[in-house]
């Protein structure tokens, strides 16, 4: 059974999102504004304020409490340097969730995304008893595609105009990872 906080490597932890994280997330999004722009929806100026981040964190924690969302942050010391989220958690016969993640521009290339995605997959299997997780990447994001492939995800197709990203409807490569073949409990 995976326990959090989890050491992703010797100096980075992955832990559940907390209400007090809004300020650190605000700083992280400001710092990574240009880095994340090609992979994110258009963000209004107020997205980068503590007030909006506080509202977002409260909303995510509310969704977590309903069982539909599992949010984590990655920290380097006291600084937030990324996030991993399992969203749209569905139980019953589907037992599935969507995976999203990002890493601070200054921390890329260290294997942090790979280790965080592995940990999220393990938690999805062992703690949430999910059957599968799905992820999508903009076609022009080979780095994220490599992370998913390294973590055991398989390409299941291409979705034309899947999400409105950086001001346009973007085609995405869709991936899934089958976690287990247990019957729904």
UniProtKB/TrEMBL annotation:
<dbReference type="InterPro" id="IPR016181">
    <property type="entry name" value="Acyl_CoA_acyltransferase"/>
</dbReference>
<dbReference type="GO" id="GO:0016740">
    <property type="term" value="F:transferase activity"/>
</dbReference>
<feature type="domain" description="N-acetyltransferase">
    <location>
        <begin position="12"/>
        <end position="180"/>
    </location>
</feature>
<keyword id="KW-0012">Acyltransferase</keyword>
<dbReference type="Pfam" id="PF13302">
    <property type="entry name" value="Acetyltransf_3"/>
</dbReference>
<dbReference type="InterPro" id="IPR000182">
    <property type="entry name" value="GNAT_dom"/>
</dbReference>
<keyword id="KW-0808">Transferase</keyword>
<dbReference type="InterPro" id="IPR051531">
    <property type="entry name" value="N-acetyltransferase"/>
</dbReference>
<protein>
    <submittedName>
        <fullName>GNAT family protein</fullName>
        <ecNumber>2.-.-.-</ecNumber>
    </submittedName>
</protein>
<comment type="similarity">
    <text>Belongs to the acetyltransferase family. RimJ subfamily.</text>
</comment>
């Amino acid at each position: 059974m995976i326990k959090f906080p989890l050491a992703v490597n010797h100096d980075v932890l992955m832990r559940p999102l907390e209400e007090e994280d809004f300020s650190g997330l605000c700083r992280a999004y400001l710092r990574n504004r240009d880095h994340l722009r090609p992979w994110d929806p258009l963000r209004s100026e107020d997205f980068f304020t503590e007030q909006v981040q506080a509202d977002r964190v409260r909303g995510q924690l509310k969704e977590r409490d309903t069982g539909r969302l599992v949010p984590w942050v990655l920290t380097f010391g006291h600084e937030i340097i990324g996030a991993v989220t399992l969203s749209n958690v569905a139980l019953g016969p589907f037992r599935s969730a969507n995976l999203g993640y990002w890493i601070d521009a200054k921390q890329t290339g260290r294997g942090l995304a790979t280790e965080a995605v592995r940990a999220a997959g393990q938690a999805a299997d062992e703690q949430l008893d999910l059957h599968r997780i799905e992820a999508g990447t903009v076609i022009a994001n080979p780095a994220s595609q490599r992370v998913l492939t390294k973590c055991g995800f398989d390409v299941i197709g291409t979705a034309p105009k899947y999400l409105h990203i950086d001001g346009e409807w973007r085609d995405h490569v869709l991936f899934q990872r089958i976690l287990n073949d247990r019957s729904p409990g």
